[in-house]
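Hey forum,

I'm writing up a methods section and want to include a predicted complex as supplementary material. The small molecule is 2-acetamido-2-deoxy-beta-D-glucopyranose. I've pasted the protein sequence and the SMILES. Can someone with a working setup run it? I'll credit the forum in the acknowledgements.
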Amino acid sequence: MEMLPLMLLFLLCFVPQLRACLQCDRTVRLMLEDYILSEPNVLKQIELQKITDQGLVGFRETSDQYKGVIDFTTLYRAKTEFLSEFDRFRKTTTGSTSEAIQIMEKGREILEKYLILFIPDGLCPNKCGLLVRRVMDCTSCLYKTYICPSPTGQQDCGEFPVNAEEGDQAVLDCFLPWHRLLLGKPEYHYSWAAGVPKIKKLEESDFRVLVVTDEASVVLNQLHVEEEGTYRCLLQNQTGTVFYKVTFLISVRALPTQTQKPVITFPPLHLDNTPLTMQSYDALLVPLISTVIAACLAASLGLAILLRVIRKDQKRKGKEEEDLMQSLL
Ligand SMILES: *[C@@H]1O[C@H](CO)[C@@H](O)[C@H](O)[C@H]1NC(C)=O
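Reply by user p_vandermeer:
Happy to help. Structure tokens for the complex are below, copy them as they are.
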């Protein structure tokens, strides 16, 4: 047990402090080690070690210029490009130290190229709303939580009017690509308050839950005039932190009665075009119902017979098997 603090101390002293994001990657570390060890001359090894260490300082300084963090995807891209450059370098190098310096500088440029793209656009893509995500700290090589506050200072990202007609379908979509980066498993909470939008100031108690879902969008089929109202989408986690909020103001226009969609009639209209009376409905219904009942009775009778035949067959087979077993014993 007393070994433990000693070992920790040992680890703390010998873990290189010069980490940068490319160096955080295991494949890159192994590749550099392998490169140094493949040099037969020990003095040359020491020299290469110095060059790669110096190169890593350059990586870290570059990371620091760009907030000192990177996400998994960007690190993966930078690493893949650096690995393939390094591969080519090892195949073509004449072993001169200036070439080693160059390839480390090349690595720094690759890292910078990806960070230039990632930091301004990729790190905090939320134009409105709160993003809490995971990124790698380029100094400690550990993942940490990174908070991108809403640039507008609030999670409420606006109102969208939706003008519909009775019978229309409305699709309410609350999705933005950065929602996928959110930590935890936030869900979309849809709720609504009935009534013509914007007529009165709505209180929290006016809203009724519509649905809570992983899906960002909901579909309202066959809108009725009574479904007119203020629809709200909140993206929030289990403890109620709201990351994103939008409101859809749905107004539904009633269709004028004369253009109302025709009601489908059953049974089909008579050829002589006289409207169906109650009596003619009855006249049609009685034979229809009797036919259906007769068909049902016949079907269940048939089913009962079939079941009995199957059961008999199974019994017979069981018996045969038993006999067979006994004769074998
Ligand atoms: C919800 O988000 C807040 C803010 O990031 C966080 O403090 C809290 O732990 C989260 N809750 C869950 C259940 O993830």
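Some notes you might quote in the supplement: The chain has a mean pLDDT of 84. The two ends are 66 Å apart (CA to CA).
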